[in-house]
Design goal:
The complex is a heterodimer. Chain A is an alpha/beta fold. Chain A has eight helices and seven strands; from the N terminus they run βαβαβαβαβαβαααβ. Classes of the chains: A alpha/beta, B alpha/beta.
């Protein structure tokens, strides 16, 4: 076996939002690093598609709507103790501040912020997070380091989840549970391509704001998540890993 | 070769401050991940000791006093085109502000800041950084996120490095040179001087760390390896905090 401090060999890892985008690519890359994966998401068909892309054996998927307490409890009861948790499921909706509705706001907060908090808390309470283990939150530069017009609800949800991450890092350190976040800039995934807020021209103008002159690929985020899940980062907790092609500079 | 996006196989990596501490461990870890390492430092015996621990072949070592412009220029003449640079040379001093004379500032800034920045500038000017390549400054949480009495001179030099890092990240992006820093908390190296801090003070200070310990040089080295590797090819201008949760 080649020397690799970033290996996930033998680690059990749960990834939410694994049906597409960053979640799917992270699942695939984790499998290539030797992890045993537990995938969840709302879309069973797309979860199965992710499963087919994984390297190795012994992976499972459990469809679940994590904003539903029963489904979350059912998911947790199906899991063994975990070495890693990737709180990645997230939704997006652009709306200028003055047009925000309470319904949209609560819906986004429920999926992006409340669900991952309750999932983390319940996994710890049910003793499903090992000592040591690692929790990674997919946050964003939005709401934390760089905000864009019309993005208030998403920014709020991501600022909040980063706040939770930092506090949980303190609370859970004694149990050997590290908590960190990845903060991507714009990544080419369905959450971006299915969003019709910008025209082609506007996307092109947006791309030029990145010093490295491209949008991110899901792999860019997946590799950072792997660093944070691996033993290579065993003294890293409470950190926000910015993966943004220099956007915030 | 097994799949490893964090591999440094066949990359030429320069590590300054490689005679000891974080620089030594980083050089060794880079070699274990397949890099060809160029190490530099001031102590001939300690540099040789690092060199003898490197795995694989294709490495080289150069003695240099990086505060000397002549030594800098000689070093730059000898290095190959580099895929990575780790700027790790540094020293510390504990001095209350009231005793932090210009001389104190100059001494620490000359090695921690000016020598490292000038080395990078010369490497870029002489086109010795490949396209793409990755530069890592070893900065600190001290002076940027964490402030302890007596650490002002060291802290200021590390904050200055971080600022320059971000400007370099912006200006060198068109050349596909990524520039980042690692910002460690307290790490077990000889930079920690037991003559100025007692064992009791160390134990008491460790309680400030949620993860309950100081860092090891490998904790920092792995963060540096991540930033040197292709796994981080969309990461630039970032301060990677590796501090056991100290600054939460």
């Amino acid at each position: 076996m080649s020397y690799n401090p970033f290996s996930l060999e033998g680690k059990t890892i749960l990834i939410t939002g694994a049906s597409s985008g960053i979640g799917r690519t992270t699942a695939v890359e984790c499998s290539k690093m030797g992890a045993q994966l537990f995938l969840t998401g709302r879309n069973e068909q797309r979860l199965i598609e992710t499963m087919e892309l994984l390297d190795g054996q012994n992976h499972s998927f459990i469809p679940a709507d994590l904003t539903d307490d029963n489904e979350m409890q059912h998911l947790i009861s199906s899991l063994p103790p975990l070495d890693g948790l990737v709180n990645n499921a997230g939704i997006q909706k652009y709306m200028p501040t003055q047009f925000i509705t309470e319904d949209d706001l609560l819906r986004i907060l429920k999926t992006n912020t409340v669900a991952p908090i309750l999932l983390t808390r319940t996994l710890v309470k049910k003793k499903k997070m090992k000592n040591p283990s690692s929790v990674v939150f997919t946050s964003s530069i939005a709401g934390n380091f760089k905000c864009s017009p019309g993005n208030a609800m998403y920014s709020t949800s991501k600022g909040a989840i980063s706040g939770f991450m930092r506090n949980s890092a303190i609370d859970l350190a004694a149990k050997g549970i590290r908590c960190n976040a990845v903060n991507p800039g714009m990544i080419v995934t369905p959450i971006m391509t299915e969003n019709s807020a910008l025209t082609e021209e506007q996307w092109e103008e947006n791309r030029k704001l990145y010093p490295l002159k491209r949008f991110g690929k899901p792999e860019d985020v997946a590799f950072a998540i792997i660093y944070l899940l691996s033993d290579a980062s065993s003294w890293v907790t409470g950190s926000s890993l910015i993966i943004d092609g220099g956007r915030i500079l | 070769m097994l799949y490893n996006p964090f591999s440094l196989k066949d990359k030429n990596i320069l590590v300054t401050g490689a005679s000891s501490g974080i620089g030594r461990t980083t050089a060794i870890e880079c070699s274990k991940l397949g890099a060809k390492v160029v190490i530099t430092g001031r102590s001939i015996e300690r540099l040789q000791e690092t060199y003898s621990q490197l795995e694989g072949v294709g490495h080289s070592q150069y003695l240099a006093e990086l505060t000397s412009q002549e030594d800098l220029e000689n070093l730059v003449k000898q290095v190959p085109t580099l895929d990575g640079v780790v700027l790790c040379a540094g020293s510390g001093v504990i001095k209350p502000f009231i005793y932090s004379s210009r001389e104190q500032f100059d001494k620490v800034f000359n090695i921690n800041f000016f020598s490292q920045v000038e080395l990078l500038r010369l490497l870029v000017k002489k086109k010795l950084l490949a396209k793409p390549s990755s530069v890592v400054f070893v900065s600190s949480v001290g002076g940027i996120y964490s402030f302890d009495p007596g650490n002002g001179v060291y802290g200021a030099s590390k904050a200055a490095l971080c600022s320059t890092m971000k400007f370099c990240a912006l200006e060198l992006a068109p050349k596909k040179i990524r520039v980042n820093s690692v910002n460690p908390g307290m790490v077990h190296t000889k930079l920690i001087n037991p003559n100025t801090i007692t064992e009791e003070q160390f134990q008491s200070d460790m309680e400030n760390y949620p993860l309950g310990r100081y860092g090891e040089t490998s904790d920092v080295a792995y963060g540096i390896v991540y930033l040197l590797s292709d796994a981080s090819s969309w990461v630039t201008g970032h301060t990677l905090v590796i501090d056991g949760g100290l600054t939460i």
